[in-house]
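[User]
Um, tokens okay?
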Amino acid sequence: EVHLVESGGGLVQAGKSLRLACAASGFSFDKYAIAWFRQAPGKEREGVSCISISDGSTYYADSVKGRFTISSDRAKNTVYLQMNNLKHEDTAVYYCAAVVDWTTVESIATMPPYELDYWGQGTQVTVSS
């Protein structure tokens, strides 16, 4: 059975950091790319960051570039999103998703939800200003 489980969300003050984790099981982790998406109330879903597990290539949205870092631990089948210098506008539910068929990691960020193979349940990040 496939599982993607996010953790690490919470309430934090602006300027502080959080690290999200996405733990995967039930599929061939090394063959996939993992992406982080976020959605705030009343806003469209945004592709935040993506990583190819096999070659480590990464993508970041302009809104988080320089502040967020995505990484993977293949031994633990886990992808992390280190979020530094958090801003109020980073407040959202953060989801991780896995996809096995993609062209570039950049393309994953704009894929419609049905084109990604697996989704986690989401974790809330709230940044107080």
About this structure: The first strand starts at residue 3 and ends at 7.
